[in-house]
Design brief:
The complex is a heterodimer of chains A (332) and B (271). By secondary structure, chain A is an alpha/beta fold. Chain A has one domain: pyruvate-formate lyase- activating enzyme (Alpha-Beta Horseshoe). An eight-stranded mixed sheet of chain A has the order 4-5-9-10-11-13-14-18. In chain A, strand 13, helix 11 and strand 14 form a beta-alpha-beta unit. In chain A, helix 11 runs parallel beside helix 13. With 271 residues, chain B is an alpha/beta fold. Chain B has two domains: 200 residues, 3-Layer(aba) Sandwich (Rossmann fold); 62 residues, no CATH class. Chain B is 40% helix and 20% strand. A five-stranded mixed beta barrel of chain B has the order 5-9-8-6-10. In chain B, strand 2 and strand 3 form a beta hairpin. The chains are: A alpha/beta (332), B alpha/beta (271). At the A-B interface, strand 2 and helix 9 of A face strand 7, strand 8, helix 5 and helix 7 of B.
Chain lengths: 332, 271
């Protein structure tokens, strides 16, 4: 999988580093002082790197657990996000990561214990309301599980902290580890979907919708709380029929009454990310569509975004009660 | 265009012969050889010379489109076998301690190793890595000219602890480069293919040139026009931008408005 693994000097002897390197005996190991030396240089091309990214093993020193933007959440009042990894195995053409990062290499922060420490500090600050911790912002939470052991490590942490809730957001079918253990009441496994036609066109390397729904059905059968994330909503000709079919397909496979939450979110990118992505993929129809730049945020024209969100909300309410539906209303 | 930087005439000879490069030195500060798709400059020894030759070649050729850059040369190594061809995956400048990491994402399937650029020939081979005298100067300069994935260093091991550098002659040097031409070909082909892929994505637009010849656009209008032409060609590749309705517009502002209105009506299909 990896021909080259970059290793920060300070984590060279970390047990997680050793275990990961042992999985890739043929990979060249390259020591660096700080992952930024490899990941941050300006003169890099995300598109050229994406077919064969390297792995970078590093330590995250600060800003490990951060508050989510206002409007982001699934019912909790205290919401945080954290990223044990930068960059995703998948290659979705709408993804902001390709506009945010110069490099497509995967950066895996091996100091999980420091993340846990920070979470404990947050929990100690205010024990009156549960805190939500969202994983899957800078990466897919489960896609690299056999290598990272991320869920295997963090779920026991949350098992001992009933006032802390975790969402693992993913497009992966790597659920074996979850099925082998007892489900946690304070964990939501959330899967993202777009309609089949959009999936085919934009979600490169992502498992098929059917396979993801199968994985979800197995998890639901085993007692896990599941979330559905229709995010981002993508406008195409014929979107109504496509989303209608997606929702029918999804809810014919899953028991809506046993879902934790359903959320949807509009397609949005900061202007600088949009410009970078258009430079990388000038021929991508997604970025030739009816987009508008409003106060530094590129999204569908206001009327169109409302139409798309409104339609999808209306369709989803045919399948799930309103109490389960959380539209993402992140301020621009 | 693929640009090669070598330090020595002995390194250049087999490459110029293999790729049929003709002498285009003219009266410039560096010997330059080229064909339609490749150029080679002989820099002389040292990282400063390599940096200067890189900048010089870029200046001469930048109009030919996005370039890929390849430094080819001999290098010492404590333990590797003479004749080994190795790509540098980390370049360290000995004097400054600065590191660079040429991205290894092109699927070259060649050995890679650390490379230390020194200011004078090293004969003690203290560390188990490659030693050269040009790469750090070449690499940081070439990265100003193109994206880092298209800048690589290929070194042929010419000396090691058992057979130190003092024994290497010009003929040895040429022979060593010749022995690695098959691997060099692989690197060259891959770099050229990637550079072409990038060039194709950013090819100048004849439609844009046609429009800007017909009407006067301000700088900001040209920026808007470029974006509108890109969107048009993506959403409606079979519909020429240059049509009678467009031609009837009087001013640049009207052209932009017409195109925006027309784009609003085009269906968005992702496949």
């Amino acid at each position: 999988m990896f021909s080259h693994i970059y290793i920060e000097e300070q984590v060279r002897e970390h047990p997680r580093t050793r275990a990961i390197c042992a999985r890739f005996p043929k990979a060249a190991h390259i020591t660096c002082r700080h992952y930024g030396e490899v990941f941050n240089p300006r003169s890099q091309n995300f598109r050229l790197q994406k077919p064969r990214p390297a792995l970078i093993l590093a330590r995250k020193h600060k800003r490990r657990v951060l508050p989510t933007p206002d409007g982001y959440g699934i019912g909790g009042s205290r919401n945080y996000y954290f990223s044990h990894m930068l960059n995703c195995l998948y290659d979705c053409r709408y993804c902001f990561l390709q506009g945010m990062y110069r490099s497509a290499h995967y950066v895996l922060f091996v100091n999980y214990e420091d993340f846990e420490s920070d979470m404990d500090c947050i929990l100690a600050e205010n024990s009156n309301a549960p805190a939500w911790f969202f994983s899957g912002y800078d990466c897919d939470s489960l896609a690299l599980e056999p290598v990272s052991g991320f869920a295997a490590h963090f779920l026991p942490f949350f098992e001992k902290r009933p006032d802390a809730c975790i969402e693992l957001r993913s497009k992966s079918t790597q659920v074996r580890g979850l099925l082998k253990r007892e489900p946690l009441a304070n964990a939501v496994i959330a899967f993202s979907f777009t309609p089949e036609e959009i999936y085919q066109a934009l979600e490169h390397k992502v498992p098929a919708i059917d396979r993801r729904l199968d994985a979800m059905a197995q998890l639901q059968e085993a007692g896990w709380s599941l979330g559905l994330r229709f995010d981002p909503l993508i406008y195409v000709e014929g979107y109504r029929e496509q989303y209608r079919r997606l929702f029918q397909q999804t809810f014919s496979r899953l028991d809506a009454a046993r879902l934790h939450s359903v959320s949807l979110g509009p397609f949005r990118l900061p202007r600088t990310f949009y410009k970078t992505i258009v430079q990388l993929y000038p021929d991508e129809p997604l970025y030739a569509g009816p987009l508008a730049d409003t106060q530094g945020m590129v999204s569908y024209r206001a009327g169109l975004e409302n139409e798309l969100t409104g339609f999808c909300t209306e369709e989803l309410l045919k399948h799930v009660p309103e109490a389960l539906l959380f539209p993402c209303q992140v301020a621009a | 265009m693929l640009c090669l930087i070598v330090a020595l005439p002995a390194e250049a000879r087999p490459l110029a012969g293999h790729y049929k490069l003709r002498d285009k030195s003219a009266s410039g500060p560096f010997s330059v050889f080229r064909n339609d798709t490749m150029a080679l400059a002989v820099s002389g020894i040292g990282k400063l010379a390599a940096a200067a030759a890189t900048a010089y070649l870029h200046g001469r050729l930048h109009r030919d489109g996005p370039a890929a850059w390849l430094n080819i040369g001999i290098a010492g190594h404590a333990s590797r076998t003479l004749g080994d061809g190795v790509i540098a995956h980390r370049i360290t400048d000995h004097a400054s301690g600065q590191n660079w990491y040429p991205p290894q994402v092109l699927g070259l399937d060649l050995a890679t190793d650390n490379l230390l650029t020194v200011d004078s020939p090293q004969l003690d081979y203290r560390d188990d890595l490659m030693y050269d005298m040009e790469a750090s100067g070449f690499y940081q300069t070439a990265c100003r000219c193109t994206t880092a994935e298209l800048v690589q260093c290929f070194k042929v091991i010419s000396d090691n602890r058992d057979q130190p550098a003092t024994a290497v002659t010009a003929n040895d040097c040429a022979d060593l480069i010749s022995s690695c031409l098959d691997r060099i070909d692989r690197v060259v082909d891959t770099l050229q293919s990637c550079a072409q892929q990038l060039a194709a994505a950013h090819a100048p637009s004849p439609e844009l040139e046609q429009l800007t010849r017909h009407w006067h656009f301000t700088a900001s209008q040209t920026h808007r026009l470029t974006e509108l032409v890109r969107r048009w060609k993506t959403l409606a590749p079979d519909q020429p931008v240059w049509c009678s309705e467009l031609k009837s517009q009087q001013r640049a502002g009207e052209v932009l408005l017409w195109m925006e209105q027309r784009l609003h009506t085009l269906p968005v299909k992702l496949c």
